[in-house]
């Protein structure tokens, strides 16, 4: 379906996040453990390097090529030390109706908007509600939409719920916008009689904050087929700590939450050992922010 990786913390070499772990995001292109499908429809990332020019603006890289074999990405990953990352490999159904182009590659980040978003899932009945969704968007946000995915419209809907999407917003404001966006989609689905299972695992990042959403509309209703890849792909995991690197043969953060300065959130754990990873609960949002040099995370229930 798709796989997402996000990071917020002390600068680390990008290669150590994308390539080094045995179940790294790039390896999940062809061998994701929790998704028995290939993710061949593109790769994208927003990566914040504090040593770069204008560090508040991320490096952006998007390609429709299979990232595992992308030499340019490999070279870039060996040079960047990132303090924040949102990366995504795109998986799509195996049929000719799917559009593979740069405009549909995640993460999405509109011009002058700090907040980026990536999506793992599929909003069933999107074509039926797309034009109704248009009425919910701010005109200056709607004009940025270039692709054809439900994901980009979810992103635009969330931005439209922010009072000012063109500045760094507080985690509380972003979470409120997410709640409003999900409530709008639920209302429109009901108005159009859409009850098919639809997962909206979302991760938002702006270089300072990270919000990870695990949510599904009408879980278990597969009236038009079966869930692609099984229920495992709906998962989301995180791990806290400091000094990300190779420790005792595993790529991981150490030290636990007490002195944590870094966090990794991903569709599935990046290493064989799950012991340091925690699953994000269903129907909830993991909100991460910086307080006095530490990364603090809170889990909020999503009742919409």
Task: Give a quick summary of the entry.
This protein has 304 residues and is an alpha+beta fold.
Tell me the layout of helices and strands.
Elements: E1 2-13, H1 14-18, H2 28-31, E2 43-48, E3 59-63, H3 71-77, E4 81-90, E5 116-122, H4 126-134, H5 139-142, H6 150-160, H7 171-191, E6 198-205, E7 210-214, E8 216-217, E9 237-247, E10 250-254, E11 262-266, E12 278-279, E13 284-291, E14 294-301
Antiparallel strand pairs: 1-4, 1-11, 2-3, 2-4, 5-6, 6-7, 6-8, 7-13, 9-10, 9-11, 9-12, 13-14
Helix pairs in contact: 6-7
Structure, explained:
This protein is an alpha+beta fold. It is 20% helix and 31% strand. It is built from 7 helices and 14 strands. Strands 1, 2, 3, 4, 9, 10, 11 and 12 form an 8-stranded antiparallel β-sheet that branches. Strands 5, 6, 7, 8, 13 and 14 form a 6-stranded antiparallel β-sheet that branches. Strand 9 and strand 10 form a beta hairpin. Helix 6 packs across helix 7. The radius of gyration is 18 Å and the shape is globular. The model has no long low-confidence stretch (mean pLDDT 91).
Helical/strand content category: alpha+beta
Rg from C-alpha positions?
18 Å
Mean pLDDT: 91
Biggest sheet record: 8 strands, antiparallel
Low-confidence stretches: none
Strand/helix succession: EHHEEHEEHHHHEEEEEEEEE
Distance between the termini: 24 Å
Strand content: 25-35%
* Extended strand count: 14
Helix content: 10-25%
The total of helices stands at: 7
Describe the global form.
globular
